[in-house]
């Protein structure tokens, strides 16, 4: 299996690109099929490793999975094998997939128990799972960690609605607790709930299945427990991280690109954040058109101080696009401070950009100042390794804008989040191949 991309950069691209379905939404929605024995039809599912692994895991548990076409599946979870959760296969597959924690809420709600191996996954600092488990405990679940087997065992035969104030507005934590609470006795109130579009999508789908959730889109969710849920159909939103990545790609390479069917109103602050870097975008219907730009200038604040772009929980700027904004700023006119507040160690790929000729001061693990080159100096191609999904795509964008040949290793990381990215970029005229 080849595991590197070779890129000859420095030429503009042109054309249309369709964003894939949202990965983060998919992991929640697919876990929710476990809440009912009736048929669920889910479309716009991205064809990427993390999602395919979860679909395979659902099949292993006894869910009947049918693939209707490239992006649409049906799921029927009316015959789940609960003993599977103590098996070595589950330990191996569940342990290698961070998203597997998302099945715990639905299993607790419907069957009153679950086991989960200690999770692995992405290297972006310490992502705690405490939020999930504290929420389950408040609903009345008891769990113990068995150090010998490496499994968390959870007993939830009598979940009761309650008031929960989350210690952090975790998207997956909120989703997991919502899925547990929809079938609990009584009313659950979740305050400091995450309110990302993915989570709104999950709550709307659960309501179509018969759940009673109010406050969707806010940070205060109220869930009246019901006794059972039925089947429904659901279509994923397009992936906003891909959309942001393609905006950055167009600007950095001076390309004219149209991003199709973006569900613009669900993108929140993302388009405006790129506009603050001086990037022109036009909304045409539900497509974003980015004209070819030789030049884009970072705005400064009204008092003339340096622009700062920082991530924050929704509706703030998503941390998954911080690395993209940082790379795009390299060729802007002006300077910007990039502040990655929510995860540690996500800016450490900056050393590769310095090797390519970028002017960046890494202030500390959370902050970097980018001094824009204003396209006066082209980056140069180098050989590099992708540390995680988001940095990998940022490096890919840098390589496509650079002069000469770049090689990116460890592209499995990129492919965990972006389906067939090389083929889709080739369709825009990119010189990228697997080696």
Taking the alpha carbons of the first and last residues, their distance comes to: 9 Å
Give unreliable regions as ranges.
121-127
Main beta sheet: strand number and arrangement?
A: 4 strands, mixed
Total of DSSP H or I helical runs spanning 4+ residues: 14
Please state the average pLDDT score: 93
Helix content range: 25-40%
Strand order of the largest sheet: 21-22-1-23
Q: How many beta-strand elements?
A: 23
**What percent strand?**
15-25%
Query: What is the global morphology?
Result: globular
Keywords: Cell cycle, Cell division, Cell shape, Cell wall biogenesis/degradation, Cytoplasm, Peptidoglycan synthesis, Transferase
EC number: 2.5.1.7
Family: Belongs to the EPSP synthase family. MurA subfamily.
InterPro entries: Enolpyruvate_Tfrase_dom, Enolpyruvate_Tfrase_sf, MurA_subfamily, RNA3'P_cycl/enolpyr_Trfase_a/b, UDP_GlcNAc_COvinyl_MurA
Summarize the structure in words:
This protein is of the alpha+beta class. It is built from 14 helices and 23 strands. The strands form six sheets. Strands 21-22-1-23 form a four-stranded mixed β-sheet. A four-stranded mixed β-sheet has the order 2-14-16-15, with helices on one face. It is globular.
